[in-house]
Amino acid sequence: MKFSNNGYYIERYIKCSNCGMLLYSDGLKSEIAPNEVFCSKWCIDWSSAKADGVEEPKIPFGHEKLHEIG
Ligand SMILES: [Zn+2]
User: Fold this and answer.
1) Ion ligand 1 residue ranges (Cβ < 5 Å)
2) Tens digit of pLDDT for each residue in 10-22?
3) Taking the complete model, does pTM exceed 0.70, yes or no?
């Protein structure tokens, strides 16, 4: 979701390319998929594993919570 410069209205809605969560910032970019935007490192990892042909990627959460915005 992107607010207009004066902050009075929403210019456009941005959603995570992986999970579809609405983003309140510009989100995270990945060099693997330059035209996509993601909510978290986890979604980038998951998405790239999927692109590599992994049916059910198992990405450890580590210290990062899912949907945490960078
Ligand atoms: Zn996501």
Assistant:
1) 16, 18-19, 21, 39, 43
2) 677 889 999 999 9
3) no
Q: Average pLDDT for residues 27-52, to the nearest whole number?
A: 91
Ligand 1 centroid to Cα of residue 39, in Å, is 4
How many angstroms is it from 11 CA to the middle of ligand 1? Answer: 21
CA of 63 to the centre of ligand 1 (A): 16
- Rounded to whole angstroms, the Cα distance separating 34 from 28 reads 10
| Residue 14 neighbours by CB under 8 Å, 6+ apart | 1, 2, 22, 23, 26, 27, 37
Phi and psi (nearest 5°) for 41?
A: -60, -35
Looking at residue 23, the DSSP 8-state letter turns out to be E
Q: 8 CA to middle of ligand 1, Å?
A: 26
